[in-house]
């Protein structure tokens, strides 16, 4: 039988401490081995591109500082009407969709929808708030500059569009399982009173594969929190797992209620707007009537009077007879994400949506996204993500090194890829552990489809290979 849980001790030898006969360790070890081996290339791409994305603010400062920041820092600021009028001269064929007033030393961003731009792309004009001079313009995606947009596309879908998103979802789907499985395996190996110390630091005085494994495990423990955070937050906006997550939020009534942009006395259909998740104004507005620039000043005054401090995003009404919106877009802790709807004619506030009133899961999701993007805690967040990415890359390199160190020699060619942990560990599990197993796999497979499909493929392939090898043994024996 191929599923030997532990070797038989020689006669007279002192009994070694053994795990229970129903231990999950053999099955977990085999899964960790193959998952790490096969998913590692996807994790490498995600970690390298994520590492580059973690310094996105610094990249913007290097490439676009002459556009993003005000060139003058003295004198009173011009009205938004003046700044918008100047921006319109730079994009005469664009449809004005919103404005992000200058905050601190930043330039004012005036956003236009323009014919020929792709979905969610806008033409953003940067205006000096003190002089109303146009400093430049960029094609932006949800507010991101071209360089950051490219890095984001590389990280999300390898610049391959929607089909490429499968790679990042597959990596995020397996990352948490590989990380937790590795922790369980390493904890099971440790003995003695210094177990916690051995868990966090590499073992000294050892060589070869044991030394590599010790470093692999210690770095994995230190990287665990970051890996779990990236896996969970990455899945929330993935293609398939993200859809299931949104379905669950809807069923639990845990989604944020959109801001009501219906004006009092309006005869039109109720309007809901103000998604405003800090990516810049994105509503198309292709058929909007000409916008009076002075309206931006009225809505800005209404927002400040209503207590909306910090950086703001003012959105033009998406339909005639609807309210304009103003939303806080502060993504740094403690985040400020309140929104108001205002009558564009009078500036009266018609509705408000406070971040604190959102359901807990909705708030947690927003914070998780900002943490994943490296903005929630400022530079500390960036450093944390960079160290996590470097830790994941180091673990993968050490994992492959272990695989290479255990490669077959000329005298032992029984396994061309190196000897994996023995198969069949599940046969040693008791019935009470086997019965819920398929139910758990099905539940996880539904919630995280790419994990379920790839896990099923792994189990089927492993079963086929094992069956084929067993069928060849009698023939080779004769």
From TrEMBL:
Native source species: Longispora fulva
InterPro entries listed in its UniProt record: PepSY-ass_TM
Keywords, sorted A to Z: Membrane, Transmembrane, Transmembrane helix
Region (Disordered): 264-287
Keyword Transmembrane helix applies: yes
Domain of life: Bacteria
Transmembrane segments: 33-56, 170-188, 217-237, 383-403, 424-444, 450-468
Pfam families referenced in this protein's UniProt entry, alphabetically: PepSY_TM
Protein's name in the database: Putative iron-regulated membrane protein
